Amino acid sequence: MHCQSPSLSAPTSGRADAPITIENCSFVANEAEIGSSIWFRGWEYFILEIRNSIFACGLLSPAIDCDSGDAIISCTDICGNAGGDWVGGIAFLADANNNFSSEPLFCDPDSGDYHLYDISPCAPENNPCSTLIGALGQGCEWSCCGFYTGGYTGNTNCDEEGKLNLSDITAMITRVYIDPEVLLCCEENGDVNCDAKINLSDITNLITKVYIDPEFELCLCE
Length: 222
What we know:
Elements: E1 3-6, E2 14-16, E3 20-23, E4 25-28, E5 38-40, E6 48-51, E7 54-56, E8 64-66, E9 71-74, E10 77-79, E11 106-108, E12 113-117, E13 138-140, H1 166-178, H2 200-212
Parallel strand pairs: 1-4, 2-5, 3-6, 4-7, 5-8, 6-9, 7-10, 12-13
Antiparallel strand pairs: 11-12
Helix pairs in contact: 1-2
């Protein structure tokens, strides 16, 4: 089975009572009370085999619900699912068969684009399996500026949650006043007023955004 399955909702996920193989599929933001993407029971006779697939951001429950020993999983990324990722009947596979838990880095999941950034751990050149993981390959290139902040500058410590906070301000102060040779994690993120410089004005704007006016708009990345 090769597939893409975004944002589906059901009381329980799809149930299979027969052998099934899933390969190069992307299950994203699906929702079910038991197994947000898969509920499988082999009853000691059938096996669920999953290869080169992504299970991300499932709601209400872990992505896969099955009995221990019912599943064989390899080269698969299970990440950010409610109730945990490699848990229950698949917990023992977390560190086996080149499986992992990392943000897939989809191009624009909010708009339904589940292609991968070139730096995605699911791209063939970035994972130990040297193969595409998920349904779709590279569709965009990564730029550090604004990557986690909706295209805006300011995330100078490049935390993946994209939060602007004291840590970003501290990085800017260090860069401007303590050690100019220290580079920010992403230099473009430091130019929050778009004057092609990193200086006091940028620090002031960032402080305004974080502590005074959350609606204050910083510079958009080019």
